[in-house]
Amino acid sequence: MRLRQTTTAMALALMAMGSAPAWADMDAARAFLDAEIGELSTLTRAEQEAEMQWFMDAAKPFAGMEIKVVSETITTHEYEAKVLAPAFEAITGIKVTHDLIGEGDVVEKLQTQMQTGENIYDAYINDSDLIGTHWRYQQVRILDDWMAGEGAAVTNPNLDIADFIGTKFTTAPDGKLYQLPTQQFANLYWFRYDWFNHPKSQEDFKAKYGYDLGVPLNWSAYEDIAEFFTGRDMSYAGGPSSGVFGNMDYGKKDPSLGWRYTDAWMSMAGMGDVGEPNGLPVDEWGIRVNENSQPVGSCVARGGATNDAAAVYAVTKAIEWLQKYTPPEAQMNEDGTPKWRMAPSPHGAYWQEGTKVGYQDAGSWTLMKSTPVDRAQAAWLYAQFVTSKTVDVKKSHVGLTFIRESTIQHESFTERAPKLGGLVEFYRSPARVQWSPTGTNVPDYPKLAQLWWQNIGDAMSGAKTPQEALDALCLEQERVLERLERAGVQGDIGPKLNEEQDPQVWLDAPGAPVAKLENEKPQGETISYDELIKSWQ
Q1: With the C-alpha atoms ordered 319, 325, 330, 333, is the resulting torsion angle positive or negative?
Q2: What mean pLDDT do residues 80-94 have?
Q3: Residue 184 and residue 309: Cα distance in Å, rounded?
Q4: Which of 223, 256, 348, 425 is the most exposed place for a label (fewest CB within 10 A)?
Q5: Which residue ranges does the chain devote to CATH 3.40.190.10?
């Protein structure tokens, strides 16, 4: 797909230099719609122009204002910053500086604004993983209240909150919406469809392992498949004769290492409790909450699961596979269809039906209470512009991070689906709801997240055994919970730690935490990818 970004930027620049203010007529909007959007919208051209007219009218009190917003650096946000922000300025007269920085830096800036009250940014795109933090600290504007109050005059009547697929992730236990998703994606299993389907691969795998080669449903099958392909001569399927590996992973001691575990790895292993919403009473961070959603422990001795058998198993397997396998390079077929396909991630030996399957990122617009009202109103207009029905189909083609049901169902994605390796089928299926971000058990994401990569890194480097690293991690998490409890800053929904007990008391109780299984490698289970896709349709 050709983006035509240069043409759009030039057209908008010319409109902005015209004699009349850009917000005073439709010329800038029409230039943008002609050059950038075309038919890639769920709205008709007349409806697009009507939506642009609403933005122009609502923005008149803020024309000439300069605002600053921030997000992590991914393709979707690059498109927002480089294409949509200049378009918004040309159409509304509000200048937006959309900074693109690392994910960890976004969290750090947000934390600093929370601690100091200084208005560093007028709006943040931060992951919905912080919903528990935002709900407890009450330092962000509750969007439901905002849209009915100070933000009413600048809330698009065509916003259509019900069309957003990720609002359950940004809604707190009080039932109110705190953040608006602007990009969303699930962590899925990627594999070489052509290699898996080759008759020789299938025959050789069946002969060695006794079951069919297919999409792995559990870690036992994943491990067998990784072993099968590592070092294998794949020249018979058009691949290399050497240098083939069966696993993709990394162990660098970096903040992203921690997110990999809190986001996906622990839940796939089977850590935490079954049921929706995710993580009640114990989530994949190992944090237990009581009936009032108050965090009560992280270590097994307090009913947590950060250092239980499922957690140890998760880290042990990751290290074992890391030492044996590294990722191959992705390529494309000559006809443009992908050699790689995506499927649900397999689960570990401790996983039970109803446990979280995997992680879904939901980067979401967040307005801080420390931001002056007029600046928050202008930023809210920009947030709605980049998530509007006018632009969302085109933005989704660029970044492939769906946020609207109407976009997912758009005919352009029906046409493009064969070249996206199962992504469209996944998002059109009921399966997508089984992937979820971090829930509300985590009372202070910035403080707790930094503990994970440091301790997991110790296990990866061999400085500590997995059990030693996780014992240290759960104790450090509880120290943070204790400090929050003593400070009382989160009121009656903040931490209230359980008394320590013999860990066996908790291991004998139903649910998480869990004791070690005698067999951590049950029979491998797979499913045909084509049958899987049929189940999604």
Answers
A1: negative
A2: 97
A3: 31
A4: 256
A5: 5-185+360-430
Are the beta carbons of 233 and 198 closer than 8 angstroms?
A: no
Cα 310 from chain centroid?
23
Q: Tell me how far apart the alpha carbons of residues 382 and 364 are, in angstroms, rounded to a whole number.
A: 13
pLDDT number for residue 529? 85
> Residue for token digits 């790689």?
340
Structure tokens at 364: 């979401």
Per-residue pLDDT of 454-493, as tens digits, reads 999 999 989 999 999 999 999 999 999 999 999 999 999 9
Average pLDDT of every residue of the chain: 90
Inter-residue contact 201 to 213 (CB < 8 Å): yes
CA-to-CA separations, 81 to 3, 85, 125, 374, 498, in angstroms, rounded: 14, 5, 12, 21, 46
Pick left, alpha or beta for residue 95 (phi over 0 → left; psi -120 to 50 → alpha; otherwise beta): beta
Q: Which residues contact 324 (CB under 8 A, 6 or more apart)?
A: 226, 227, 230, 247
Comparing CA positions, the residue from 435, 432, 476, 438 lying closest to residue 455 is 476
Contact predicate 364/125, CB 8 Å: yes
Strand partners, 310: none
CA atoms within 13 A on the CB side of 523: 5
Judge if pTM exceeds 0.70: yes
Q: Give the per-residue pLDDT at 64.
A: 94
